[in-house]
UniProtKB/TrEMBL annotation:
InterPro entries: LRR_dom_sf. This is F-box domain-containing protein. The lineage of its organism: Eukaryota, Fungi, Dikarya, Basidiomycota, Agaricomycotina.
Length: 308
């Protein structure tokens, strides 16, 4: 049936979701991918038997602008499968990542995975680099290693805190981990800030931890995005408390980035009772309760689009 699918140049995005099974890149899979010659964005959320199959899959997607690797791709590196699952493609597709602008990583094995990808081709101008909730970046040296590859072009860096607790914050960074200058870096996003009402807990610890991180990230940061999630909208009221240490955070950031101008606070809840009036009340509360941060403007936004 695969060969009967009509060529669809209008399709720009593809999600390969195959979590319960391991993908083998057969000629039929290659034919299927060839029916979408205009792909710009691909998300892979499936185990793939080995690096050869993985690289051929990505190569068969064409010259992508956006690539997302989901949590299930952790299973692609299984040495015991390599001898029995050989790549049976006469003309394997080479990877061309030269046009890649956005990279989203959601797998714990991202260092090994990216090494395999970039061995053959590297983005000429990567603009956005995101490590999502399923990735284990407690050792930030791995993140910094790849960030260094694109330090001259990167504009937006996103880290997700899902699954971490205050006790699991990355240890103090080493001076050897200072990233290369990032002259284009203007936005840093921290997502997955849960239970904001606990001002002595995880969220406030993360906010206080940020200046430590920023000391190792030379750039021209102008915007910090903090994305909070709560069960109900009433919990968001605590975000605007002085107990979060907003003034201290602002002072620390301005010392490192004199051109810094914005903190954007994103609020998201699955509650069906999060009405327009509730949102406007939170905006008004932010103006009333947030301390004056000098030249830094505070904006409140609502939504669940965490990775852009």
């Amino acid at each position: 049936m695969v060969h009967k699918i009509p060529v669809s140049p209008q399709v720009l995005e593809l999600v390969w979701l195959y979590r319960d099974y391991t993908t083998t890149v057969t000629p039929d899979v290659v034919k299927f991918l060839a029916t979408f010659p205009s792909l710009e964005a691909v998300k892979i959320d499936s185990g793939i038997v080995d690096t050869a199959h993985f690289k051929h899959f990505v190569g068969s997607c064409g010259r992508l602008k956006k690539l997302e690797l989901g949590m299930s791709t952790t299973s692609i590196f299984r040495p015991q499968l390599v001898p029995v699952q050989k790549l049976r493609i006469q003309d394997p597709r080479s990877i061309d990542l030269s046009l890649l602008q956005s990279l989203i990583i959601g797998t714990d094995d991202f260092p090994m995975l990216l090494e395999a990808l970039f061995a053959d081709s590297k983005p000429a101008r990567l603009l956005s680099f995101t490590i999502t909730c399923t990735a284990n970046y407690s050792d930030l040296s791995s993140v910094w290693h790849f960030l260094n590859m694109f330090s001259s072009t990167i504009q937006h860096l996103t880290l997700d805190t899902h699954g971490m607790t205050g006790d699991e914050l990355p240890p103090p960074l080493r001076s050897s981990m200072i990233c290369s200058p990032c002259p284009s870096l203007h936005t840093f996003t921290l997502t997955g800030l849960h239970d904001p009402k606990s001002c002595g807990g995880f969220c406030s610890e993360m906010v206080r931890w940020l200046p430590t991180l920023f000391r190792y990230l030379p750039g021209r940061l102008t915007t910090l995005e903090l994305k909070f999630t709560a069960v109900c909208h009433q919990e968001f009221e605590a975000v605007f408390s002085s107990r979060y240490g907003w003034r201290k955070l602002a002072t620390s950031i301005l010392k490192l980035y004199p051109t810094f101008t914005r903190i954007v606070i994103w609020l998201n809840t699955d509650s069906q009772f999060f009405r327009f009036d509730d949102r406007m009340a939170l905006v008004a509360l932010s103006k009333e309760k947030m301390p004056d941060l000098g030249p830094i403007q505070v904006e409140v936004e609502f939504g669940d689009q965490y990775y852009r």
